[in-house]
Amino acid sequence: MARLGSKAPVARNRESLWKDEFSVFEEHERFVNRRQLTKFLTLTSAGMFVGNLWILVKSWLRRGETFPHMTIARAAEIQVGGVKLFRYPNPKEQCLLVRIGENDYAAYSQKCTHLSCAVYYSREDNQLICPCHNGRFSIRDGAVIQGPPTRALPRVVLAREGDRIIATAMSEKLES
Amino acid sequence: MRRGTTALDGAVALIILLLIVQVWLLSATLDAYLAGHTDAALPGAICSGLIFVATAGLYWFAHHIDHWC
After folding, report:
1. Cα nearest neighbour of B62 on chain A
2. Which architecture, in CATH terms, is A70-171?
3. Which among A14, A142, A169, B50 is least buried, having the fewest CB atoms inside 10 angstroms?
4. pLDDT-derived band of residue A125, with 50, 70 and 90 as boundaries?
């Protein structure tokens, strides 16, 4: 108890020392605090500006991006309503190819645009479904049908050469 | 003294207002970028830069307010 009691005067001394070192009049204290706030807010604004610049640099880099041409399947390899998984444009990116008609194929990134869960194709609903939060995407263009995702699934641009189905690029824009 | 405090209040309020616009701008530009629309990046960066300049101007005003009030 005696030790606790002895600490109180030290705390008071510290406070007075602080007052001595920063000779700010009490009525000016609000003034100083607001100035500190403006400094903090200006730094926040600078941070957001840097964020916008980062997006700009990434956009410029993306414009020059090229994609490899890669054979992902043979036409007869998948039945109508069937799915084939493949990796494109690099080994880390999982995509899925769906045969939606006799001569109709669609391929999308398997990564949900909400929280990156893997989407799967539901033949009954003819939709791509994310099992995490029940997000649903159109098989025709990858557009969001329902659920929390706000952006369409990135689409793999396909080409056909004979019986080969070739991935030529990735597109994040919806086809108009 | 009171005039200075009022001017400082005004500057803080304006900065907060500008920051709200800048947050919206950043999120809208990021959303457009992630959706594959890269055209919005340049106007977004220019507007964000202008807002930052305005905020820095208000900060400068707040720190030199004693000269006027």
Report:
1. A35
2. 3-layer Sandwich (2.102)
3. A14
4. very high
pLDDT at A173 over 80: no
Looking at this predicted complex, what is its ipTM? 0.91
A138 contacts chain B (CB < 8 A): no
Per-residue pLDDT reduced to its tens digit, A22-38: 666 666 666 567 778 88
Q: Which of A162, A159, A123, A126 is nearest to A141 (CA)?
A: A126
Q: Which one of A40, A49, A65, A137 would you mutate to disrupt binding with B, by most B Cβ within 10 Å of its Cβ?
A: A49
Region A143-151: mean pLDDT is 92
Chain B CB contacts of A31 below 8 Å: 4-5, 8
**B38, A63: Cβ pair inside 8 Å?**
yes
Q: Any CB–CB contact under 8 A between A53 and chain B? A: yes
Residue A100 in contact with residue A126, Cβ under 8 Å? yes
Q: Cα separation of A138 and A115, whole Å?
A: 18
Portions of chain A given CATH number 2.102.10.10: 70-171
